[in-house]
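Pilot study result, target chain (93 residues):
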Amino acid sequence: MSEKAVRMVIEGRVQGVWFRGWAAGEAARLHIRGWIRNRRDGTGEAIFAGTAADVDAIIEACRQGPPAARVETLIQHPAEAPEGMGFRSLPTA
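Predicted structure:
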């Protein structure tokens, strides 16, 4: 299976609405590696790595996010897969 890694910036109402916790749950369900964090500018940022199908699935899920979120834009760029296994929520940067 083909491996894929992307860096995403998620714009909209994504802080204070459990987006990071929701994304961590989705990542675990899909066996995605990487991390997610809030950024001081009000956006979210994530690295997702896994099979191409699973990464595509989490990208699609992020277009909606959890119920209280309002995702306006997803900006994605190819990325290097993170070292190690698992998915974690990082502090605001």
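One observation from the pilot: The chain has one domain: 16-89. A full batch analysis is planned for the follow-on phase.
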